[in-house]
Design brief:
About 45% of the residues lie in helices and about 15% in strands. By secondary structure, it is α/β, with parallel strands linked by helices. It has 2 domains: about 60 residues, Chitin binding domain (Antimicrobial Protein, Tachycitin, Chain A), CATH 2.170.140; about 425 residues, Metal-dependent hydrolases (TIM Barrel, Alpha-Beta Barrel). The protein has a 4-stranded parallel beta sheet. Strands 13-14-15-16 form a 4-stranded parallel beta sheet. Strands 1-2-3 form a 3-stranded antiparallel beta sheet, with no helix packed on it. A hairpin with a 6-residue loop joins strand 1 and strand 2. Helix 3 packs across helix 20, helix 5 packs across helix 18 and helix 10 crosses helix 11.
């Protein structure tokens, strides 16, 4: 192969030289039979040949800016003999257009060819997109532009929901959700309406200022506990206004609707973790688990998602009578719920689990958790698809802290359990937090959760591109949790412009009043991709979510086939809707 490439190279060079020689009148390929003197070189107009006794000295340069004239045997500003063509000067507009086309070809979806129907839809989609951008630009340089305003503001959600672009995105097949956390997937209003109205649901308000609400199911009222547990239904009735009471619960189980209440990322993360404190007793219960997971799958399915990888710790599920099941039973229930949902929704591929541990844990806990994950993989080979460490990176242990534990299992033991590390979810640069990106790559992570600090590390970027490591971008999460206020300034704008491997996901949508993937796709389309992002970009992001999933080859092929059918139907229906 190498020798053939060399031969091709020299053949091409010979052709170029012969072509050039034809353009140079009277050029001298050799000095045979020529008297001593200077002649036109066949190498170009700016050089000449000296012949002496049949010997040739070629490529003798003229002074800068001069060319050889063989009639006068001198270097001059113009030549009567050299006919080498200058490249025609392009019209500036044409040159600029070609430059822009090259620029756009790099972006995500830039090489994806749309068919005639897709192009018709794309034209309408881009018309609607530019209409929105023009409208918001007219309002004091973009005030109220949704990607530039914190998603917690109710007005932001309202503006998105009114958007024609958002309506198209909601109808669009989105492939897979690869970065979502178990307890924060199902709508919190659904959780309140369906789980806190149970007669055995109790709440503790003792530590609401420090750790937040706590819920628990008790079949008999608890006595002599460390918390003053009160029956939720009784409290709701005593409030005299059940609607207001439920709104109070909602505001304490989510990030609320007023971002100005949080002075720092520390404040944001304190409230964020309090949401999980409120949800854990409802979620990991016999009463709540199956219903909540099923509801979460239904919400993502209704949002045209075909497959989900759920991050979560396998906590024991308890009964209201005080009984408890082990973590293995919890994982089995995930599988049972997924299998049942897939059976009743045959166009849904399924939900699998990425096992997580908190990065604030001691190394011994992570070592034990990793060994347990290996055992679970053997017991549930199709359900367990990865391992991750979660929690606030700025305050938790770095990956380097756990490197001994993470490298301890053999390759054979870790077979089928790829690392999918959260890394670079920080604004810091060059400290142990954002250096998690380096360790993630060195530990052979197959995907990177967030990767917000990725542009700080050119070698990591190189590895991401070379090894095709997908970045799981969660736009709204990064905004709500204080990494970026205006999504137009998110580093993923560069990821999309360069066509880096990436997917869009939603992290913990229920905690900020979003649902499934559509809101994050909208923010990415309008804010991260700029005015150039089009239908091809959206399609590529959806396809890549399937490509970078941990599905088996057979599952991936089935999902791709189903996706294409759904996509074609989406294009046809949307064209009809807009009479295109």
């Amino acid at each position: 192969m190498a020798s053939s490439k060399v031969m091709i190279f020299f053949t091409v060079m010979e052709l170029l030289q012969s072509t050039l020689a034809a353009k140079l009148t009277g050029c001298v390929p050799d000095c045979s039979g020529l008297v001593k003197g200077n002649y036109q070189s066949c190498q170009g107009c700016t050089v000449y040949v000296t012949c002496t006794n049949g010997n040739m000295i070629d490529n003798r340069p003229c002074p800068a800016g001069l060319v050889w004239d063989d009639n006068f045997k001198i270097c001059s500003e113009t030549s009567t003999t050299c006919l080498e063509d200058e490249p025609p000067k392009k019209d500036y507009t044409q040159e600029r257009e070609e430059f822009l086309m090259k620029e756009k070809s790099f972006q995500t979806g830039g090489s994806l060819k749309l068919n005639d129907e897709e192009n018709r839809l794309n034209k309408k989609l881009m018309e609607l997109k530019m209409k929105e951008i023009k409208y918001y630009r007219s309002l004091d340089d973009g005030v109220d532009f949704p990607p530039a305003v914190n998603f917690l503001n109710d007005q932001t959600k309202n503006n998105i929901q009114k958007s024609e672009v958002f309506k198209i995105i909601r109808a669009m097949p989105k492939g897979a959700a690869l970065h979502v956390h178990d307890m924060a997937m199902a709508d919190i209003r659904w959780v309140i309406a369906n789980l806190t109205y149970h007669s055995e649901c109790y709440v503790c308000l003792d530590d609401i200022d420090s750790i937040g609400l706590q819920f628990h199911y008790y079949s008999t009222p608890p006595i002599k506990t460390d918390c003053n547990w009160q029956n939720v239904n009784k409290l709701r009735k005593q409030s005299g206004n059940p609607t207001k009471f439920d709104e109070l619960l909602y505001s304490n189980m989510t990030m609320g609707n007023d971002p100005s209440l949080f002075r720092s990322q520390t404040d944001l993360w304190k409230r964020f973790m309090a949401c999980f404190t409120a949800l854990v007793g409802l979620f990991f219960s016999e009463i709540g688990f199956h219903a909540t997971v099923t509801q979460a799958l239904q919400e993502f399915y209704d949002d045209n998602v075909q497959y989900i990888e759920i991050r979560g710790s396998m906590l024991p599920i308890y009964g209201s009578d005080g009984s408890s099941h082990d973590a293995t039973w919890t994982l089995e229930q995930y599988k049972n719920v997924s299998d049942l949902f897939t059976k009743t929704h045959p166009d849904f591929t399924g939900a699998k689990n990425i096992i997580t541990l908190l990065r604030s844990e001691d190394a011994s806990v992570v070592a034990a958790g990793l060994n347990e994950t290996i055992l679970w993989k053997r017991q549930f080979p199709d359900q367990v698809v990865g391992f991750d460490l979660v929690g606030q990176e700025d305050t938790g242990h770095s990956l380097l802290y756990f490197v001994k534990e993470l490298l301890a299992p053999s390759r054979e033991d870790m077979s089928g359990i790829p690392f999918m590390f959260h890394a670079g979810e920080t604004n810091w640069n060059g400290v142990d937090v954002d250096l998690n990106l380096i360790d993630a790559v060195l530990l052979n992570t197959t995907r990177i959760g967030h990767g917000y600090a990725l542009t700080h590390h050119p070698q990591v970027l190189h590895n991401v591109m070379q090894n095709d490591i997908a970045i799981e971008v969660n736009p709204i999460s990064n905004q709500v949790l204080g990494l970026v206020s205006d999504l137009r300034n998110h580093p993923a704008t560069a990821f999309l412009a360069l066509g880096l491997p990436m997917v869009i996901s939603s992290d913990d949508p229920a905690l900020w009043g979003a649902s499934a993937l559509s809101y994050d796709y909208y923010e990415a389309f309008m804010g991260l991709s700029g005015a150039w992002g089009d239908l091809a970009m959206l399609k590529k992001l959806a396809l890549d979510s399937i490509k970078y999933s941990a599905m088996s080859g057979q599952e991936r092929n089935h999902t791709l086939s189903s996706f294409q059918h759904k996509w074609d139907l989406f294009v046809t229906n949307t064209i009809k809707q807009y009479n295109l």
